[in-house]
Amino acid sequence: MKRLATTLLLTLGTASLCAQPAPALTVDDCLRLALEQHPALASAQAGVAAANEAVGEARTPFYPRVDLTAGYHRFQRRAYLPGEITLPGGIQPKLIGPLDDWNGGLVSRVTLFDFGARQAGLAAAEARRSGADAGVAATRANLRANVQAAFHALAIAQDLKEVAARNLERAEQHHRLADLRQQAGAVPQADVLRTAATLAEARLQLITAESRVRRAAGELNTAMGRSADTALAIAQTDGLTPPAPVDYAAAVEQALAGRPELLASNQRTVAAQAAVTAAKAARAPKLNADASFGWRDSAWVPETREWQAGLTIDLPLFDAGGRKRGVARARAEVAREEAADANLRLQVRQEVWSAQVELERAWAAIAANEAGVRSAAESLRAVRERYEFGAAIITDLLDTQTALARTEASLAEAKGQYRTARVYFERAVGAGEKN
């Protein structure tokens, strides 16, 4: 019996632990989780690793290459000998073989001079690595902005749910009030029916608000790199502070200096310029040194030593215009990257401008909506008192109730939009993106 009781207690205790809600996450907690586990950041970091290897690969042509070769062949060839050459006995052979050919040795080759082709390839690889590093910073900045925006969107949804719950509570109170007054013969049955319809609409609004909370929670989970259905709760957001005065010129200068996308774009241009140098060098002669040492014989183990060492010059003469077109293509790539960089700078300027305007608008909207909420709440109080004493009709009461719910929802949206606007303004100017 004691064993059964102990088992039941453990089971209930485990169930209660499993039923505990997820701990409330602050926005910093959400950012930490996103930076730890989001696959987009892991992908960008893998790109950096690949770029690092590409730099090492671009350095290898500066060093000699050594290969170990070995082989076996059995051959028979026609003997092309001058007519005056004969073997002992006056025989002039027509065939050589069949013979065995065993060989093995080392072969080495190194480029001594190539008019800057290797150096250009290395410069391009290093530029791509710098661009990959900047891409990681840009991905991290985008993650931060997306997580913060999703966090505030969830906070807005929760605030709207509270607004809908308060509106439902008022609708229930007004429905009870109308029912009591109808039973007392002070108002017609139509007032009860009107409040009942308003009550049903308020319940539907609460259902819609709850659905929005669930969607926003899924979006925040996804922004953090988690499954959308992961249990999630967020902490209350901090109070609001007014925006600091913004100098647009200084903000643009900060953005142009700090946005990692611009650094990545600049490094793509540098890589394209290096590709032009490499394409030009492909049209120039190359000086190579090569050497080999090994053994060759018709029997295993080969005993005859063979070796050679020397210099070769490769001078391209005709390639049907392939190298010329390669240079033209590389130059076109430079022009494209430069144009893309200029376009990106225009976009950054526009993002800073739009973010500044939205930040100012959102802050002004909060003050306007706070005044509207105070006015609507006072109007509802006055109209309800008048309705209780028969000095107002049900339409006045329900209209003021709707107006209050609308202004409360608008205030909640405005606060969330202001927080989101601050996030995107900081993202636009590149604030904190080197962290």
Structural summary, described in words:
- It is a single chain.
- This protein has 9 helices and 6 strands.
- With 435 residues, it is α+β, with helices and mostly antiparallel strands.
- The protein has one domain: Outer membrane efflux proteins (OEP), CATH 1.20.1600.
- The protein is elongated and about 145 Å long.
- About 4% of the residues have low confidence.
Task: Name the CATH superfamily assignment.
Answer: Outer membrane efflux proteins (OEP)
Q: Report how far apart the termini are.
A: 61 Å
Mean pLDDT: 89
Q: What is the overall shape? A: elongated
Strand order across the biggest sheet? 2-3-5-6
Key traits:
single chain, Outer membrane efflux proteins (OEP), four-stranded antiparallel β-sheet, two-stranded parallel ribbon, elongated
Question: What's the layout of helices and strands?
Answer:
Blueprint: H1 2-19, E1 24-25, H2 27-37, H3 39-59, E2 65-78, E3 95-113, H4 117-183, H5 189-223, E4 233-234, H6 248-258, H7 260-281, E5 286-297, E6 304-314, H8 322-388, H9 394-429
Parallel strand pairs: 1-4
Antiparallel strand pairs: 2-3, 3-5, 5-6
Helix pairs in contact: 2-4, 3-4, 4-5, 4-7, 4-9, 6-8, 7-8, 8-9
